[in-house]
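Workshop exercise sheet. Pairs work together: one partner reads the sequence aloud, the other fills in the structure field after running the prediction. Swap roles for the next sheet.
Pair: D.N. / O.F.
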Amino acid sequence: MNIFLYYAALCLYLASTLTYALYLAWTRTRPLLERPGYCLLAAGFVFHFAAMLTRYFEAGYTPITSFHESLSFLALCIAGFYLYINKVYRVHAIGSIIAPLICLIVIMSLRFPNEIKPLAPALQSAWLPVHTIFSFLGNGVFFLGFFVSLLYLIIEKEIKRKKGFLFSGKFPSLETLDSINYRCMSLGFPFLTVGIITGSIWAGFAWGSYWRWDPKETWSLITWIVYAILLHNRLALGWRGRKTSYMMILGFFLILFTFLGVNFLLKGKHSYL
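Structure field:
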């Protein structure tokens, strides 16, 4: 049942992507399409959440234990955080970037086996939902921060050149983008911190050591340090705009390597994903 709901969510995400594309392409339809694109994405989020919840009851454990499930939950987190950001800032145009990103991640997840399997002994812990949910919430927030940062740098460059790239008039101001970036920092960093701490506690119970310098642990720590430096410099040194964007982009690539690169290129205790 969960896979049917998942495909329904994908269809709604694709419809949202198409609607946002029309929103960008046709100026005259802008008032008519900005709200439907958001509503379709919100509907996709609801079906996606229902699919995850159904899979939870079918499996009997938190379904974030395989690449299919992990990518699915990551997409869900990105969608949920965008809905929150749009509620606060009314930045419909950013949905034209986020909707296709979500579609891409969902389609990628379908390329991995999606059958429900018995939970590996190492994962049979009450710490599983706590650690994975907080970690992926942080990843989802920083994924959105990455694209906001890219958008900031592109718009800033075009403003300095006294030009405007295609559709630039429909995207938020640099001030709004910088504010969204700070919101990503202030929410994503605590999520990431709790994810690392709970993972360490879980490791202590499972392996008898709170920290073993496993590749994923090491790269998670490196990522955390980068975001800690960024947040410190924002609050203490007043970093804004371009500096923040560059650091957010660096942090994103570290998250991407920690999430995917470590599992494919380096072997460790987390290789069961």
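Discussion prompt: The two ends are 23 Å apart (CA to CA). What would you look at next?
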